[in-house]
Design a protein that fits this description.
Layout lengths: L6 E10 L2 E8 L4 E9 L5 H12 L9 E7 L4 E7 L3 E3 H8 L6 H20 L12 E4 L4 E3 L4 H6 L7 H18 L34 H15 L7 H9 L3
Antiparallel strand pairs: 1-2, 2-3, 3-5, 4-5, 6-7, 7-8
Length: 249
């Protein structure tokens, strides 16, 4: 009953584009993991496997690591194994806060640590492309991790053929916006991610138009990051955005 001869299924987490996501237990390493299983006859197999292989090359403390990519012959399925990050997603945190802003320092830290990972990933030609509130995890130790590099873009098809770097820049702006306002700025399909009830806001403008007490420098920084989708002056690279956030930490 073990997937790939070592992973015991514990709990189903979700289902998207024919793929099933499970929490599982690694019988060899004695740790929790997540498995994404996709039937080999799925038309997205080539894209999904390529995305997972690219994501696996990233070794970073802020990335949820892909640890194994293999075919389970008994299930006739591609299995992508990744770390299981114990903690809360940003979607969870927004629900718990009930629409209230986070502490400004926490909002900046979460956005900055995601931007640090993406700056390094972009330099290696790796992107995310489909960041949602469920992609960002704050662990029990207070670390920030990003799940779904490359893979989620295949599954959620959010950025399509658009500029992938700008999609990620906009997403970091959305992370900061949500921390400063308590609400995710973009529309998210309720069937694709938890926390989407907080996201039916359309394209954001400035956090100060939604919440009070937003520092002017963060208000402007967030607007510039979101400008990739809303127009106006925007950051040209993730490195530019990361440097601006570093100055605010």
């Amino acid at each position: 009953d073990l997937v790939l001869g070592r992973y015991a299924l514990v709990e189903g987490i979700g289902f998207n584009r024919g793929t099933a996501l499970w929490q599982a237990w690694d019988q060899f390493a004695d740790v929790a993991v997540r498995l994404r299983m996709t039937p080999m006859n799925s038309p997205i197999i080539p894209m999904l496997r390529g995305a997972a292989e690219r994501a696996r090359t990233i070794r970073d403390e802020h990335a949820v690591q892909v640890t194994e990519i293999a075919i389970d012959r008994a299930l006739d399925a591609l299995v992508i194994v990744s770390e299981f990050s114990k903690g809360l997603t940003l979607a969870d945190i927004l629900v718990i806060e009930g629409g209230r802003p986070l502490l400004t320092s926490d909002a900046v830290t979460i956005a900055h640590e995601v931007s640090q990972l993406l700056t390094r990933a972009h330099a290696a030609g790796i992107h995310h492309g489909s960041i949602t509130p469920d992609s960002v995890v704050v662990t029990l130790d207070g670390d920030v991790q990003l799940a779904g590099l490359e893979v989620d873009e295949v599954l959620l098809r959010h950025s399509g053929g658009n500029d992938r770097e700008r999609a990620d820049i906009h997403a970091v702006g959305a992370i900061l916006f949500s921390g400063l306002t308590g609400r995710w700025p973009d529309v998210i399909d309720e069937l694709e991610t938890a926390g989407s009830q907080l996201g039916n806001w359309g394209n954001a403008t400035r956090p100060s138009q939604v919440a009070t007490g937003v520092p002017p420098d963060l208000d402007e920084l967030t607007f510039r990051a979101l400008a990739s989708a809303t127009g106006g002056e925007c950051f040209n690279t993730m490195a530019d955005l990361e440097a601006a956030l570093a100055a605010c930490v």
